[in-house]
Each structure stands twice: as C-alpha cells, then as structure tokens.
Amino acid sequence: MHCYRRSAELGASTGQFNLAKAYQFGRFGVTPDKPRAAMLFRAAARQGDDSAMVAWGDCLEKGIGVPVNHAKAKAQYRRAMAKGNAEATWRYGLLFELGLGVEQDYRQAVRWYGEAAQHGCIQAQRCLGNMYRLGRGLDVDDKLATLWLQRASQAGDAEATKILTLMAKEQGVRDESVSCCRVS
Asked: Which segments in the chain show pLDDT lower than 70?
C-alpha cells in the first residue's frame, strides 16, 4: 500500500490507478473513499492511462464519488477507445443501449458491442448475444445469440449462462443441453 501511495504522490498514473482501486473497494486496509478514488482515476486518466479513463468514465456515468455526467463519461470512453480499449467500447455501446446522455439507439449499441466482442470483451459478447436474442438493433437470430452468449459464458460470465438457461427453457430444451456453457 505504501508503494501505491508513494507512486501516486510522485504522479505515476499506475500508482494513482492502483490507489484509486484501493479507495474504491476498501482494499489493503484502506477505508473506502469513493470521491478520493474518483479523483485519483481522473488524475491517471489525464496522464493517458486508458484503464483509468474507463474507470473515471464509470464514476461519471454512475455518480460514484462525483455527480453523474454522461457527456463526460462518453468523452472518457471515446478517449480510451482511441487507445484500443475494448471495455471502453463496450461501455460506449451501453450508453446507446440505455440512452444515457445520448438518444437511445440499438443499432449504435450493436455496432459498438460487436467491435468490443470481436476484441474479446466478455461483457460485450453477452450484450451482443442478448441483442440478437431480443432483436434490438437487428433481426432476432437465435444461432448468433447462442454463439455470443456461449463465448461469454465459457469465459466465466454468469449472466450469460443464466440467459442461455432461460433461452433453453423458452425453447423447451432441458437445462443439461447448455451444460457445456456453464462455468465449472
């Protein structure tokens, strides 16, 4: 913990990011302090740390330690996306799916989920599969829904596993048929 503090004091973005995580979740004997965590994420993001940009955007999107500001969250996700951060791309798509700070646009959500899913973002794989399942922003396609949900499930996404189980029940298939997708 001392190393994180000293590194952050010296202005190292990695130290700021790690110290922010400690304050956000109350790790390493630190009392949780969401406003302090947000400010440390912001400092690291300003230095170009793409993971910090995503974390700072998350704080802004959800009001974690700072007031909600969807426009600034969107800007942080775009900055991280420019650096190739797949989680930022997924979160950017989520803004469009939910209509947070932008007009709700399922097609845009699908676009960004697809890009992030192709780059291995598990949450984006789940969201893309669910969009195919529900026909949001594209035609319903159970095969593609299953494909993306299985990828997410096999990578450990419990929510994707639940959705696959629900799909199997809706289709009258026994739960055992999706056991290959469950996390051991």
From this structure: 1-11, 173-184
Cβ neighbors of 159 (< 8 A, separation 6 or more) are 126, 152
- How far is residue 139's CA from residue 18's CA, in Å, rounded to a whole number? 42
CA angle, residues 26, 30, 33, in degrees to nearest 5: 60
In the chain, where the domains are located = 1-83
Q: Which fold has domain 1-83?
A: 1.25.40
Sign of the torsion formed by the C-alpha atoms of 110, 116, 119 and 122: negative
State how far the alpha carbon of 71 is from the alpha carbons of 1, 3, 67, in Å. 33, 34, 12
> 81 with 55: CB under 8 angstroms?
no
Helices and strands, counts by H and E, the chain: 10, 0
